[in-house]
Amino acid sequence: MSKIILTGDRPTGRLHVGHYVGSLRERVRLQNSGEYDKIFIMIADAQALTDNAENPEKVRQNVIEVALDYLSVGLDPAKSSILIQTQIPELTELSFYYMNLVTVSRLQRNPTVKAEIQMRNFEANIPVGFFTYPISQAADITAFLATTVPVGEDQLPMLEQTREIVRKFNSVYGETLVEPEALLPSNKACLRLPGIDGKAKMSKSLGNCIYLSDTEEEVRQKVMSMFTDPNHLRVSDPGQVEGNPVSSYLDAFARDEHFAEFCPDYQNLDEMKAHYSRGGLGDVKVKRFLNNVLQTELAPIRAKRKEYERDIPGVYDILRKGSDKAREEAAHTLDMVRSAMRINYFDDAELIRAQSEKFNG
Ligand code: TRP
Fewer Cβ close by (within 10 Å): the C or N end of the chain? Predict the structure, then answer.
């Protein structure tokens, strides 16, 4: 069986370092591993519209931001098809068929949807499209017969729901679709990078993100203003590394080479953390180190983004080609789906022959 990746992001803002360690870095690694036959990376504008219906311009402006973020981290259009969700109408058709295989109460139990409904204060005014977006996400994944979906932890309920839809479809209509697997980053610290304010998650609305496209100075200022252990008042005081975002960022980003280069007092992160915990290591020194580490990782990304920004028509060309390729794949799956569902009337010579016989003997 071919190994196929599909994953994506909603274009509602620029991508941040949480996206990077949680999924983007993994995608690039998988892309360059050469182990996958096809890779599809989706800019999920239709999904973004499910809770931004009145704000289409915001979604439209962020499609290119996300595309630039993708290209700048090293997603390579020669190896990965980057596509815009709305340009593949087959996905909408597939969602409509899947709606018959999912109950309202099952959607209500989806923990990600539940949390998002609360966060957005939708209460009784949940748009139907938003409520059903897990079904549309199942269509995104299965339309490409994806085997592997590299995502952040918050997307696991979507994968579970997708797998259920696949099993239901295959049991009702015959083996057609592929059950996908989620792929999480192996480094635990990468699952959920906290905000620079120490809140559980980076989020644009909280204003606590470091963006991939931030300037060197913006990154430096954000790092130096990061929340740390509030009880670590004097350098000599023992410090807490648990729940300390500076320490979590180092878990996600720091490698032993970084110590050799920027902070040779320590061989590795364990030594630095041990010193912090027993006291005698100040926050400023740790933040300076984190800043150096982040700048090392982000500088090439920033430079690559600048190059692509100079050729926006070229970026749209990449998106058009990726979408064309994706549409071909999805159309092929839809042919199989329609035939499994017995709605392929005009392609079925046998149907027409048998019915002629039925009516005319
Ligand atoms: N729900 C994802 C997000 O919030 C975006 C997305 C849409 C997606 N379709 C997908 C992710 C399919 C993985 C697979 O960013």
Answer: C
